[in-house]
Amino acid sequence: MISAVAIERVLFAVLAAFMLSVPWTVPALVNSFWVSVIAEILIWSLFAASVNLLFGYVGLLSFGQALYFGFGMYGVAVGISDLGLSFWPAFGLGIAAAMAMALATGIFAVRLTWHYFAIITVVFSLIFYFLALSNKWLTGGDDGINFTLPPTFALGGTTWSLTDPTFQYFFILATVAFCFWLMHRVIGSPLGKAFLAIRDNDVRAALIGLDVYRLRLLAFVMAGFLAGVAGALFAFFGRYASATYMFYHVSGEAVVWAIVGGAGTLFGPLVGTTIFILVREIVSTHWEHHALIVGVVAILVVIFAPKGIVGLWNAWLARLTERGAVPAAIDTKLRTEP
Amino acid sequence: MSEPVLRTFELAKRFGGLTAVDRVSFNLAGSRLHAIIGPNGAGKTTFFNLISGLLSSDSGRTFFHGHEITGLKPHQISRLGIKRTLQIKSVFPQLTVADNLWITGHVAQGEGHGFLNPFRAASRDRGTQEKVERTLEQIGLAALAQRQAGTLAYGDVALLEIGMALISQPRLLLLDEPICGMSPAETARAVGKIRELARTIDIIIIEHDMEVVFEIADDITVMAQGAILASGSPKEIAADERVREAYLGREEDEDYVEEEARA
């Protein structure tokens, strides 16, 4: 008898094995350019995960996550080029800046829900986008800040640095995997259940004793953390920071990736981001209107698969394993994902 | 004399020009099942909303076991032990039946004053898990434990709501038309459950089904046009002339005044 868990485990193992072998298999199969595309996919899927945490698990649709991504980027760039920080303090500064910004704006934003919430998140990100553009002395405006990478680890005479593409790939993979694991833990915890309850019915959640405002604020700061880590990684990856990544267009892309992949599923953002970046990389060299494909796919998924591609997969898997299955004994075990 | 379980003093709420709750002073002595009845638009649900903090009152005060709870937020009032069901059935539709009970029970156990541990798997809370299983048996939904609450039949949702009230270990339970829309069989089951609950928990119930009210209530309060019209034992209420007037002598045109005023 095939069980859904077994299929998922095998799939996960295959994916993990592939991800761990990318620096060797991908250059052999295609070329080494694709290693950095995969690294970029990982970073952007972490960014989409921050949208997913808010929308898929707490029910807040943010169109302003690029603000925290941008703060993660600038934290790193300003830390290294202006403050002369080394790798880890700069990384920490980027994450801290993103979380502080999420806290400061979240205090106002999470008082609102639905379209009001979406609008206020856009407004905040626009305000800081234009501030970043006009304060060239700090941000470099459109040109951004370029910096030289400090080494990640130095032990005795040997140093490891992101200038080594293989090390860079594994550093990004490890960081993104760690963040996804963190998110998985939180979703399966009592806090995660409380998030889901608020997503489903906030009035009811308050009546059973949940402090809806504080929990939403907490989720907002957590999403700021994910976006901040993604932004910091992207700064290290590109060795620069630029205000263009704070534009709401960037936020909007992440919303599409998360929803198409499957909001409210752990791996939805990864699937969505992978599809869209692959389309962009493959099609854009042949056809300039590749954004049309993105639009059509997004519309089709929203209409025919409201829970995204991962949602479709889960439903298919459930049907496959239910067929012929003996009616299970009463099982009150808790699910970790809806 | 000991403090009543619930005491309101001149509680009032207006929506624009409409006085929904008009200086209501109400006492719940305790250890009784108290029913509030009255025509539609009498202010019963608004009264519940004031007690549970979903609405804030314009004037007046509310005390729970002698502690003032006027102006507290819904989650704060809930944590003091006042739990309620809503008139329009209200559960977490995308969560399973078991998870609906789990989160309600977990919050209610109040470990660490509402601290929700993000670093511990929810499934490791054996205490809540056992309570969930017990509650599922009690409300007879064990077979549907893994169903999404949003896919349940209406009567089962109502039972789940009662289950959520049960597992939340209330000190005072406010039930807003708990059996509205149920089939006769479901009604009998729910009424039995409510009676059983009333032995250990103080309950205030809003109900339109007079048969049920007169069958289960120890005391009845009648509200009309936002104010308390009469209060007493079922016998006294049945004999009360003003109550009959309120029910029989008026048009039904005030049915949705309250809802409209809120919109």
Question: Key terms for this structure?
Answer:
heterodimer, A: 338 residues, mainly alpha, two-stranded antiparallel ribbon, disordered C terminus, B: 263 residues, alpha/beta, Rossmann fold, six-stranded mixed sheet, four-stranded antiparallel sheet, 37% helix
Main beta sheet of chain B: 6 strands, mixed
* Beta strand count of chain B: 10
Helix content of chain B: 25-40%
Arrangement of strands in the largest sheet of chain A: 1-4
> What's the helix-strand series of chain A?
HHHHHHEEEHHHHEHHHH
> How many structural domains are formed by the residues of chain A?
2
Which word captures the global form of chain A?
globular
Structural class of chain A: mainly alpha
Principal-axis shape of chain B = globular
Please identify the top-level CATH class of chain B: Alpha Beta
Can you give a write-up of this model?
In chain A, about 70% of the residues lie in helices and about 5% in strands. Chain A contains 14 helices and four strands. In chain A, α3 (about 65-80) crosses α10. Chain A is globular and about 55 Å long. Chain B is of the alpha/beta class and about 260 residues long. Chain B has one domain (about 5-260): P-loop containing nucleotide triphosphate hydrolases (Rossmann fold), CATH 3.40.50. Chain B has helices at about 45-50, 75-80, 95-110, 125-140, 155-165, 185-200, 210-215, 235-240, 240-250, 255-260, and strands spanning about 5-15, 20-30, 35, 60-65, 65-70, 80-85, 170-175, 200-205, 220-225, 225-230. In chain B, the strands form two sheets. A six-stranded mixed sheet of chain B has the order 6-7-8-3-9-10, with helices on both faces. A four-stranded antiparallel sheet of chain B has the order 2-1-4-5. In chain B, α3 (about 95-110) crosses α4 (about 125-140) and α4 packs across α5. The chains are: A mainly alpha (about 350), B alpha/beta (about 260). The interface of A and B includes residues 194, 203, 212, 215 and 334 of A.
